[in-house]
Amino acid sequence: MKMAVLNIKGLPDSLYKKLQARAKREHRSIAQEVTHILCDVLETPKPLSILHLQGLGKEHWKGIEASAHIDRERASWD
């Protein structure tokens, strides 16, 4: 399989150091980590069935009104 080569010019040192640290934590090379990150961001995720979400995290939402929570989240973006 033919693989493309990607060169990145002007990458800030601080970003490179973060990438390097993340790759080390994940036991990957920097190239493998970049590929992994790009795949996560660019690949279309498989849609989840509502059946997979039954009870997911319900203990964290006890007593929280959903629309009020969403309003607070949106307000924090400003």
Describe the structure concisely for a colleague:
This protein is mainly α and 78 residues long. Helix content is 47%, strand content 0%.
Secondary structure layout:
Layout: H1 13-25, H2 30-42, H3 66-76
Helix pairs in contact: 1-2
Keywords:
78 residues; mainly alpha
Task: Give the fraction of residues assigned to helices.
Answer: 40-55%
Low-confidence sequence ranges: none
The span between the termini is 46 Å
The total count of strands amounts to: 0
Structural class: mainly alpha
User: Major beta sheet, specifics?
Assistant: none
Total of DSSP H or I helical runs spanning 4+ residues: 3
Mean pLDDT: 85
Q: What is the overall silhouette?
A: elongated
Please provide the ordered H/E string of secondary-structure elements: HHH
Strand content: under 5%
* Rg measurement, Å: 19 Å
Descriptive notes:
With 78 residues, the chain is mainly α. It has a domain of 31 residues. The protein has three helices and no strands. The longest helix has 13 residues.
